TrEMBL record:
Keywords assigned: Membrane, Transmembrane, Transmembrane helix
Localization: Membrane
Domain of life, per lineage: Bacteria
Biological source species: Sorangium cellulosum (strain So ce56) (Polyangium cellulosum (strain So ce56))
Protein's name according to its UniProt entry: DUF423 domain-containing protein
Topological type in the membrane: Multi-pass membrane protein
């Protein structure tokens, strides 16, 4: 699983930087003309920040999976992967479409991200000292 998580980390990192740049340059000009544009742009920025942070967290999960071989690191990786899709993905889609009902998905993604960090802690407990 570590190879998959490292690969996904690279893809997520690339996309986070590209989408962050798109939000700052391309999307900003479009949303500035709309009444709720500043709010929607803040959703995009939040999505991009969490997206990039958890692309790195996926690399951490991959490293832990390689080092410990434990289930907890694999769980962390899948939680981070799904968390980014649901958390950041819902924020991106809400920003572009303005459909706020999609915000109901965002907390589920946040819970997955939290579970991923909890699984990292469990994986660390399984590591040999020294």
């Amino acid at each position: 699983m570590e190879r998959f998580f490292f690969l996904l980390s690279g893809v997520y990192g690339f996309l986070a930087v590209a989408l962050g740049a798109f939000g700052a340059h391309g999307l900003k000009a479009t949303l500035d003309a709309e009444a709720d544009g500043a709010l929607r742009l803040s959703w995009w920025q939040t999505g991009a920040q969490y997206h990039l942070a958890h692309a790195l967290a996926l690399a951490l999960a991959a490293h832990l999976a390689a080092r410990t071989g434990g289930v907890a690191a694999t769980v962390a990786g899948f939680c981070f992967a799904g968390g980014v899709l649901f958390f950041s993905g819902s924020l991106y889609v809400m920003t572009v479409t303005g459909v706020r009902v999609l915000g109901m998905v965002t907390p589920f993604g946040g819970l997955l991200l939290l579970a991923g960090w909890g699984a990292v802690a469990v994986a660390a407990l399984g590591m040999a000292k020294g």
